[in-house]
Amino acid sequence: MVRYGELSTKGKNRKDFIKQLGRNVRAVLHQFPTVEVKPQRDRLHVTLNNEDDKQVITALQGVFGIENFYPSIQIDKDMATIKKVVLQMAREQYTSGATFKINTRRQDKNFEYDTNQINNILGDYVLSNVAGISVDVKHPDIAIRVEIRMNGAFISSEIIHGAGGLPVGTGGRATMMLSGGIDSPVATYLAMKRGVKIDMIHFYSPPYTGEQALNKAKQLTSVLAKYSGNIQFIQVPFTEVQETIKEKVPEGYLMTIQRRMMLRIAAQITQDRHCSGVFTGEALGQVASQTLESMLAINDVTTMPVLRPLVSMDKEDIIKISKDIKTFDLSILPFEDCCTIFTPPAPKTRPNLEKSRKFEAYIDVDGLMKRAIDNIKITDIKAGEEFLNQDQDVFAELL
Ligand code: ATP
Ligand code: MG
C-alpha cells in the first residue's frame, strides 16, 4: 500500500500526479509480469501476486512521488479473520519484553466497529494471547497497522520510506549537461526528484577523448534511468569547437569561451526539443570555473533558464548523494572528458564579460554551432543497460 508524497497538497493537479505515478510505477515493475498496479485517490495499491517481494520493494524505493509504503496482507473485512492475522503478526515479531500498539484507520465508515473499538478489540486479543507483551502507544516496538478499506482489510507492521519528491514527468521537460564527473549525475538526480523529465546532453572530443569516456557518460545515464525511466542521450561532437578555440583565443579565456560555446549549443538543442531549461552540475566555489563572475560570463549567451541544483551544496554532501544513488564508483573512473584535456593550466577565475564577448568574436560561432548540432547522435538509454565492459566487477553491483 503506497502513500503519496507531496501529491496530497497539490489540489487540482492531483489527478495528473496520480496518473503519472501509476505509469512510472508500472514502468519500473515491468519485469514482474503478474504484479498489478492500481492508482487510487488516496493510495496506490501494488498487488504482488507471485512476485518476489524484496525485488519489488527495492524497485519501488527508487520511484519519486512515493512518501512511504506498507507491505500489507489483504484479507476479508471480518473481525475474526482480522484478529487471527493481527495475532499472527504480533507473534512473529515478538521478542522478550516487547511492547506493541494497534493503529487503525477506517475508510469504510459502514464497518461494524469504529477505530477505537477496533484498537481495543485487537489490543485486548493480542494482550491475552501473547505472554509477556505489553502496550506502549508512544514508542511501541511493534506497530501493527490496520486499514479498513472498501476493498478489504489491510494489515501491516512495517513502513518503508520512499524516495519522496514528485513523479518524474509532472515537472516538465529539461536538458541536463552531463559530464563524466561526480556532480552532474547528482544534479540530474535532484532535477528528476522535482518531477522533471531529463534529456542528457554530453560533449565529447574524439580523438582526444576515447570511446570509454563516452561510454562512461552513457553508463551513468543508465544508472540514472532507474529513477526516471528511459533517457534520451544526446552526444555532441565538440572537437572542432575546441580546436578552433585553442587556436584563436588567448589562453586565459579558453575555458570561459569553451563553456560559452557548450552552453550556446546546449541551449539551442534544448529549444529545438521544446524543453524549458538547462540543468548543470555547477556548484559555487568548487573549481576555478565555478565563481559568480564566471557564471555571469558564461550565462551571457542565453536567456534559457540555467538551473544549478548543487549551487550552494558542499562537496561532501554531493559525494554522499552520489554514493547513495550509485553513480560515485562510475564517476571516479579515470577516463578524461573533453574539458579536462583542453583546460589551460591557469584559467581565469574572474573572467571579464566584455573580454569574453570580444574573444569569442575571433571564432565563427554560428558555423561551429551548426556543424556540432548537425552531427549530434541520439540514443535511447534504458535502466541497467551496459556500456562499459572493461572491468565488470566494478559495475556488476551498480546495475
Ligand atoms: P562534474 O563533476 O559534473 O564534472 P565539475 O565539478 O567537474 O562537474 P566542471 O568540469 O567545471 O565541474 O563542469 C561544470 C558543469 O559543466 C558540469 O557539472 C556539467 O554540467 C557541465 N559539463 C562539463 N563538461 C561537460 C561535458 N563534457 N558534457 C556536458 N556537460 C559538461
Ligand atoms: Mg567535470
Provide a brief overview of the structure.
The protein is α/β, with parallel strands linked by helices and 399 residues long. It has helices at 14-28, 53-61, 79-93, 115-127, 183-193, 211-224, 239-248, 254-272, 292-299, 315-324, 328-331, 338-342, 353-360, 365-374, 392-396; strands at 2-4, 36-39, 44-47, 66-69, 72-75, 99-106, 134-135, 142-149, 152-156, 160-164, 173-177, 197-204, 231-237, 278-279, 306-307, 377-381.
Distance between the termini: 26 Å
Note the quaternary state here.
single chain
Radius of gyration: 27 Å
Distinct helical segment count: 15
Please give the CATH architecture of the largest domain.
Answer: 3-Layer(aba) Sandwich
Q: Which parts are unreliable, with pLDDT below 50 for 5 consecutive residues or more?
A: none
User: What's the number of structural domains?
Assistant: 3
Task: Tell me the CATH topology of the largest domain.
Answer: Rossmann fold
Q: Give the CATH H-level superfamily of the largest domain.
A: HUPs
* Fraction in helix: 25-40%
Instruction: Give the beta-strand count.
Output: 16
Question: Major β-sheet, in short?
Answer: 6 strands, mixed
Describe this structure in words.
With 399 residues, the chain is α/β, with parallel strands linked by helices. It has 3 domains: 2-71, 2-Layer Sandwich (VC0802-like), CATH 3.30.2130.30; 74-157, VC0802-like, CATH 3.30.2130; 173-393, Rossmann fold (3-Layer(aba) Sandwich). The chain is built from 15 helices and 16 strands. Helix 7 (239-248) packs antiparallel against helix 8 (254-272), helix 8 crosses helix 9 (292-299) and helix 8 packs across helix 14. The longest helix is centred in the middle third of the chain and has 19 residues, at 254-272. It starts with a strand and ends with a helix. The model has no long low-confidence stretch (mean pLDDT 92). The structure holds adenosine-5'-triphosphate (ATP) and magnesium ion (MG). Adenosine-5'-triphosphate (ATP) is lined by residues 177-179, 181-184, 201-203, 280-282, 286-287, 289, 337-339. This is Probable tRNA sulfurtransferase. Its main location: cytoplasm. Pathway: Cofactor biosynthesis; thiamine diphosphate biosynthesis. Residues 54-159 form the THUMP domain.
